[in-house]
């Protein structure tokens, strides 16, 4: 049994915060660089607490995000469910990767997410995102260590010393 106590409130609070981060307005120049916060936080939870987070929560979070952001209904739900499925499949390996390899894995998943989004937009006849939006997965990959360490610290109640 772990001596660290898992704070149960952190999961719903982190999801609410990430949904709110997606609503923050950004200048037009920075808009393409907005990281997919919801995917980063869900990735953390799927890797670290698979007994609490699975495909159902990923789908529900995606539907809520679709409703909040006004996109195609079900697009983010599908994208997040695919992300969660891949993470569940390879969780045992990814969890024990060094942080640099975890960053690459998350970057690959975020790039895969961007490809799925582009395919969905083409299939339904929506305009595709400009090329500048393909930089966001790189920023998400770079932010992964910060997200991981921050959520770990809040989840287990650790403070910086």
From TrEMBL:
It comes from the Bacteria. InterPro entries: Cell_shape_determining_MreD, MreD_proteobac. One of its GO terms (biological process) is regulation of cell shape. Keywords: Cell inner membrane, Cell membrane, Cell shape, Membrane, Transmembrane, Transmembrane helix. Coiled coil: none annotated. GO terms for cellular component: plasma membrane. It is a multi-pass membrane protein. The chain crosses the membrane at residues 9-33, 53-73, 94-111, 131-151. It is found in: Cell inner membrane; Cell membrane. Involved in formation of the rod shape of the cell. May also contribute to regulation of formation of penicillin-binding proteins. Belongs to the MreD family. This is Rod shape-determining protein MreD.
